[in-house]
Amino acid sequence: MADRLKMQDPREQYPKPPFPQQPQPEPGLARRMEPRPDHGETSYSGCDRLTGRKALVTGGDSGIGRAAAIAYSREGADVAISYLPSEESDAKEVIALIEAEGRKAVALPGDVTDEAWCEELVARAVNELGGLDILVVNAGHQQYRNDVSGVSNADFDLTMKTNLYALHWIVRAATPHLKPGAAVITTASVQAYEPSAILLDYATTKAGIVAYTKALAKQLIEKGVRANVVAPGPFWTALQPSGGQPQEKVAKFGEQSEFGRPGQPVEIAPVYVLLASQEASYITGEVYGVTGGAGIA
Ligand code: NAD
Ligand code: MG
Predict the structure, then answer these.
(1) What residues have CB less than 8 Å from 116, skipping those under 6 apart?
(2) Ligand 1 centre and the CA of 161: distance in Å?
(3) Which CATH superfamily is 50-278 part of?
């Protein structure tokens, strides 16, 4: 049994703050994080829950998306990952891990703030995987600003484009390919429910993702397709040191959760697996919080 699954105090299971300050330009790289996040590389073992499925995960190079991509491949799925070209080094590691499972891996570098690219990335995933059964729309942009006066139109636009427009463009392109039993999963945040003062635009998009996905779920169930939202709390990913939080908050990241530490990406992967699998046959339009005890009521 993997050490991760042995019975133990979850508060002590993974690194706690203080962490070193570690500024990175956006988008950050998982490989430059200290300590390195656990995305399940050696700790996630699957058991055929997604055999033969074809999955597309946006932002699958690092963080939560990477943990979902690794878990999907271990559960027997072929996986396409989308990411920004500057993240090629992280993406290469994920592609190698998927291929090591004997599964097909498809690399889709490009910028999801471009509508044409969103359509192309879905078309390429469908063509190269031979269909699409699981769509995880997870790529996200988070840049803190201390005051509303500092949120420029360019900031607001980039956050909306990455977190909401791309969601719509990708979902619209993908839905014609989804067959009964397929699943859509979006990544919102605890920020949709408890917005931080410094994440005005980001929190707004995360609330939008919840509403969009719930409305989508009502449409898609007419085709036998489910759609659900995952709402993470603090997870140890490159999003935070690359502008998502001030460095002093990165050093204390996760301290305020009930666990006294941030979540590691592998700790949220089982929720993405459940929602993608037929075990979730009566689950749609729901929001799954994995918030470190904060709740999403
Ligand atoms: P991450 O930086 O590892 O992943 C985000 C990914 O988004 C990047 O790897 C990048 O590939 C992709 N991306 C960003 N802009 C893009 C663009 N213009 N074009 C294409 N791809 C782009 O960080 P993460 O924390 O794993 O983030 C995944 C999701 O989880 C995001 O939606 C984020 O908002 C959400 N989330 C994270 C946390 C947290 O604490 N880490 C908490 C709540 C929600
Ligand atoms: Mg990344």
Answers:
(1) none
(2) 13
(3) NAD(P)-binding Rossmann-like Domain (3.40.50.720)
